[in-house]
Amino acid sequence: MIDDEIEEPAETIILALVNPTNSEVSSSQSVFTYTVKANDFTVPDIIYVREENSGSAPPFNSWSTAATNIQDAIDLATAGKVVLVSNGTYNLDAQISISKGVTVRSVNGADDTVVDGGGSVRCFYVTDNDAVIDGFTARNGYVSTGAGIYLLGGGSVLNCTVVSNTAGPGTSNTDAGGIRCENGGMVSNCIVYANSAGDDAGGVYCFGGGTVRGCVIRENHTGDKGGGVYCKNGGTVENSTLFNNTTDNQGGGIYNDDGYVVNSILYSNTASSAGNNYRTAGGTYSHCCSDTAPSPDSITAYPLFVNPAANDLRLQQASPCIDAGTALPGIDVDVASTPRPLDGDTNGVSTLDIGAYEYLHPDADSDGDSVTDGDEDIAGTSPADETDYLQLSAVAESDSGDMEVSWDAHGGRLYRIYTTTNLLPPSWSNVFNVSGSDGILTYTNFDPEADLLYIRIGVEEE
Helix H segments across 109-169? Predict the structure, then answer.
């Protein structure tokens, strides 16, 4: 139940805490050198990295012995292992190379975990189809191609921000300022902006394949083809927003050479020669939004972003892109982690929106669980899953005879406990408040004064 009328909490505590961060780590650092081989140890399932650590020692199997260099942790890892990286800015003097099927994941996401090429080296280079980069900012990379991230033959880039990378020098064979996907690779739920290339593909280059899914690609620039994206000899762009990219030649938003673009917004891009939003050389489109329709099932009305001047490219409630896409497999969240598809136009049918963002209508009930999408958003539950809503997971009597009430909680929420001995209004009293973390929370009524006690739980965003 969502309570609109609330009182200020008397106290805030955490009853359950899972996945703690390493905020207690030391800020000191010692400089030393070591050589290690993976077969010298039993390689742990999780290999830890933090920016500074005087106690760093292989096999880096705890925060207290964590590596201080991402590449050292990758070199130790074997296929299927996770390299877990704590907050910080990791300045590079050589690219991070991943040639095995490991997952390199940040603890707290791209805003808090930065890999910086320093204007002299590429940030990431991937040559294994099962490799994953998840939750980093890759910035200030500089090399002739794929300056931010280069996926050769596969690999995945998830939930990343790729910004201010440059493919150079010069204007010949300098392409993919942000990301290069060559003969495969997946770029999903990423923000790619303010990258540049002297030749082709300021933002993302799909060469011979690769998929760009659920991404915002904005304010990138190239000297020749594809300010935002260049698909050459293949490549797919799904549910992405290409906005305010520029080129000195053709295809400000995208230059499409035998690629496929679906459910994507191509708007407010600029080309000096031809094709402001898109330029086609054999590629195809479906259910897109642009100033001129690239396919019969596309729309031309302006997408109605929330605040394009501030690069807020979410959709307004009246946007023509809401529920205007076509069904695609494998798309279950948008670039902001909102579940999709949702019933954004409240017609009773959940359909993918066009673009990188899914509109959540506060009055809809996309999953038919009798809780509105707006209330589920407040509670941190999924409006696309009928089994996920704020509900009690257990009611039990403790060993001491007290009543215990438990529920599935989410971080960033404040839960308020109300009790009453009768259901006649006004009767509810706010007796307890608790800040949530992902996991089970339990409230114990230590000394109930009545034989019959009703309890309800309210929730709000902190």
Answer: none
Instruction: Enter the tokens of residue 115.
Output: 């890999």
Same domain, 101 and 221: yes
| 152 backbone φψ class: left, alpha, beta (φ>0; ψ -120 to 50) | beta
**What is the domain-level CATH number for residue 407?**
2.60.40
For 173, residues 6+ apart whose C-beta sits below 8 A from its C-beta are 144, 145, 199
Tokens 């009328």, located at residue = 5
Global pTM exceeds 0.85: yes
Amino acid at 124: F
Structural domain ending residue among the three candidates 280, 300, 320? 300
Residue with tokens 């099932």: 297
**pLDDT confidence of residue 447:** 60
Q: pLDDT tier at 19 (50, 70, 90 boundaries)?
A: very low
Residue 113 placed within a domain: yes
Number of domains in the chain: 2
Q: How far apart are CA 395 and CA 235, in angstroms?
A: 52
What is the DSSP-derived secondary structure letter of residue 357?
Answer: -
> How do beta strands 124-126 and 156-158 pair?
unpaired
Q: Which of 297, 294, 290 is nearest to 269 (CA)?
A: 290
Q: Domain boundary residue among 244, 276, 300? A: 300
Range of the domain at 223: 87-300
Domain-located, residue 77: no
Instruction: Judge contact between 306 and 313, C-beta under 8 A.
Output: yes
